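Human:
Class, as today's exercise, you are to examine the entry below, and be ready to discuss the fold:
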Amino acid sequence: MNSYPKRKRQVEIYFILYLAAIVLLLPSKKEDGPAIQETNPGGNHIQFSLKSDKTSLFCRLVRDSAGARIQSIDSVNNVYYKGNVEDVKFEFVVQDQLRNRKLSLRSDSIVSTKFFRMVENTGSQSASFFWEPPLADLKTKSFLVEVIATAKISGNIGNKENGNAMAGKTVIRKTQFSLNMIFIDEYYGLASNNYTGQLGDLPLDSAATQSNAPPIPFLGQLEVEPKYPRLEVVPFEKWTNSIYVFNLNPRYDLMSTPVISIDSESETGQANIADYTDNAIIIEGMAPSGGSMKVRIKLMRKYDSREAITEFIVIPRLIDKPVFSSIMYPYKEESINPKLPLLAGRTTKSVLMDGREVRAVSEQGAKFEFKPSIVDTGKVLYLERYIDDKLYGQKYPIEIKNYPSPVIKSITLTKANNVRIRTKSYGLHRGRKNFVRKVEVISGEIKWRELTGESSENNDELIFFQTFVITPKKNASEFKFKVRIADERNMKSKVVEYP
């Protein structure tokens, strides 16, 4: 029992001694970053760069009463290339730096191992690296993987003369990442300091350099970042945000439960931890009634007690009433603005319902257009707004009516025995403009004709104005009449009388 503190102190001492060595394992920013450019004498730029999905891959090994097992593992890393190159070939060199041993993997290599392998993905301009450490050697250790990409310059890099001169020449790019085995023991915690591990049963190309020091896992820089730095949420509504964590698995690597603090202007609102994933902490809560609410989260990595802090803001957002016409007509296109804002982390939509039938959908609550058909006449549709598939507010009715009957707007005597009437008609009939087609004479000895040159239209509102001239028939005893008008639908106006 007395040996435990001694061994623990020994591991802590080695941790301090090897902390500086971790820096050596950090991937080069020059190699794993922005595109690297070269310039040939002709002035053409050769772009060819590599980028890996992850800078560190972790495997957590545990031993309990049932034996050794893998608790979690980042088993795959994808390395992508881009640039004006072709015939790209990858090589992955796995290095045990403490023992000065290497293993090279290429697509055309004859080396075969069940612990490491690689696959080139021509279609996605990438290569995938796979690993699974052996369970027979339970030690905490780290390996560095150097990625070497060799390519030939494409002829399409500039002007034709210089491009042809450079075409086919070989260029090389490199990047790197680390593999980290972390062995957890119920009694000792991190694995003991007797480091005897090797790269399994792999063929290695140089003799080992002995070392009794325990390798420290490549932990990397601990970083946290919210998915949404600014959340706009309806007051008192539920919200969700993800805190992405780099170089730490929140399921296993936290020293303790992260600390959440809030600073609310209205002293309302809530925030708490909802769940953990392999690379994120899910935070949820309730929006404040007014004012902004700042949410801060602090976490600590248990292997080196490194802390990281991040924060985001929750802002209550009031939602306006929708803007639309409560009465619509067949064939007339109307604009409907649901007035639903974009709410980060929430799904918003608006739908126009005809009973159980969806007539129109607006994702994210954007403005949309709707044109009823003639068969919709007499129906009542409903505009509904949803946030995360939950009805927000009321359902707004929209009545589809038939166009009004035509009307006689005015009767004017322009000269003796000459009267002009001004008419107004609405909408479409069978896809055509619904003009007044005739003047019906109820009484009087008169005749009529249209002044087509004085017609006008409002095509946006589907309103049409026409002018007709009425004169007495020859030998008429008097000039008086009663008339009405009929449109293309045979809808008729009220009867008017002159004088």
